[in-house]
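ok so for the tutorial part 2 we go from a plain amino acid sequence to predicted structure tokens. step 1 is just haveing the sequence, like this:
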Amino acid sequence: MWKTLLTSTGEKAIKGYRASSAFRDEVLQQALTIHDQVVVDCRRQLRETKLVSEDIVRMIEHSVPEP
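step 2 — the prediction. this is what the tokens look like for a chain of 67 residues:
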């Protein structure tokens, strides 16, 4: 009985958190972090392979700062 009650209470808490703006903000922040890292990695790989000019590399996603 207690296990069922705890499980039910935990599930309600998780559902409540997932519906909250705090959860949404955290997910969006993590997505932005992943995006920025992908951009940085892409630039690095393009620079290493030298398949495109540095001018082209700099044009990729201006909003993401260089590390």
